[in-house]
Amino acid sequence: MEVSHPLSERYGKHWTQEEVTAAFAPSDDTVDAVSAWLNSSGGITRERIAQSDNKAWLAFDATVEEAEKLLMTKYFVQQDEEQMMVGCDEYYLPKHLQEHIDYVTPGVKGIHLKRASSDKKSLNRRAASLHARRQTFMPDMTLQQNSSSLDTCDQMITHDCIRALYNIPFPDPNAEVSPNNTMGIFLLSSAYAQEDLDMFFSNFTPYIANGTAPTLNSINGGIAPVDILHAGSEASLDLELAIPLVYPQKTEIYQVDDEYWSSEQWLEGGLFNTFLDAIDGSYCNYEAYGEKGDNPDYDPVYPNERDGGYKGERMCGVYKPTNIISISYMKKEADLPANYQKRQCDEWLKLGLQGVSVFVSSGDSGVGDLPNPSSPNGCLRNGTVFTPAHPNTCPWITSVGATKVYPGNTVYDPESAANDLAGDPYYFPYSSGGGFSNVFSIPEYQASHVAGYFEVEEPPYAYYYDGNYQNSTGLYNRNGRGIPDVSANGDNTAAVYNGDLRLTGGTSASAPIFAAIINLINEERIKAGKGPVGFINPVLYANPGVLNDITNGTNPGCGTEGFAASKGWDPVTGLGTPDYGRMLELFMGLP
Questions:
Q1: What are the TM regions of this chain, as residue ranges (predicted)?
Q2: 234 is known as an active-site residue
Q3: Would you call 35 a catalytic residue per the annotation?
Q4: Distance between CA 276 and CA 230 in Å, rounded?
């Protein structure tokens, strides 16, 4: 990706949406070959063939008889309690066209069966546990007395602690800011309450007026704000971190999916496709890796006629992506088809080409995942194989792990990898998510750093190659994309939700912190007549000295101690934590 490589003459020359569409479109030879076959074998003339706006697929109306003859198949209809779908068991394509056609629809993927029903209460409990990992009540007076002190940052992380840790200047509330440089936050199944934000501002950032709120981008019926009793921990944490760090810059939220799907999809299905549809209309029907458009086996289907469902059509291309997008949601790679992830990864690449920076929290369970019915310790193959997280492993996003100021240390001491044991008052053990992908290989910008890690630290575990853990005794993929890329503080974070002052944390805190710092840097570049930094990984891996290297800690999981933090990049804290001053100097020196 030349537009993101610091040594490229094309650095910062981001593409337009039209240029991206053209680059990913099939060649004229492909379109001509398929069109000729449709005409010669099926009698489908050029006048009957339409090409999608994103150029990725051809469509035509045909009778059942025409389609069956063309594809040498037999179509049938299958119906469940809610809908009817058309499909076939198999179809045939000429050998010379197989390199041009990913798949045909309706086809073997046409049949959609209803998901297994679930207890909504248990789903909501699990959803809550996957957001802000830890939460404890704190006496109001204690927080108010210490909210601006750096002496207690080992007990409670506030914005003053974050600024001291990462060399961030105090904001000028009266500064003029670019109206086109807002920070975007993805939210699903968690919405904020204005009362919580106001209580947080009053306690911790009194320079921010009560009533300050993000701009709402509602996607497919997403609702925000909500009343204080229904506020979610994730939304509260993300906004209470981001708004003060970028202030007086603005924030936007992408509140995704209606009440039904925001619970069901998050826990049982896919992630992010309806969000990506809404910020890039061409993605709604983008075809790659045998996946065209949203997958009804994993993604929400609209209109949704259920009670409380969004009755409109699926939103496509209705919002412009912000320069920065912070995401504190993830799933196990193993929970989603590889081609589903690859198609989605293409879209993260397209956003990077257009100058968008995407930051995703790396997970809170070290090399594993939270316990679930299929795996008591959240790990693969008999509870032993490490579990990397989607979409972190896509090489076109920036994965953010977590660090901690341990008891007795100060903001002037080096941080360590976040790692807390389970036990009262915490429900699950917590450590910075990290490891190696089973879907994506090591990207070029990261290759020397991963090799360097294995030269310094040889993990005491058997490994495998090419993501093939089913036929191996190894625990991790030696040639997989490594995560995280970077890290930031994610423990003992002060927050307010449901009207209470609390301590919380997780990499859910780390991602918006790092994202906010890049938003501040974008603001300075825009003032200087430059563009946003876009996809930052190649720059950071080429200049690791602008980060604070974290060399202490591990990320346990799957019955092991996980990986160890080490000098340089490591699969616990990545390249390290940000230093705003050093990073600003680096990015301001680039075109």
A1: none
A2: yes
A3: no
A4: 26
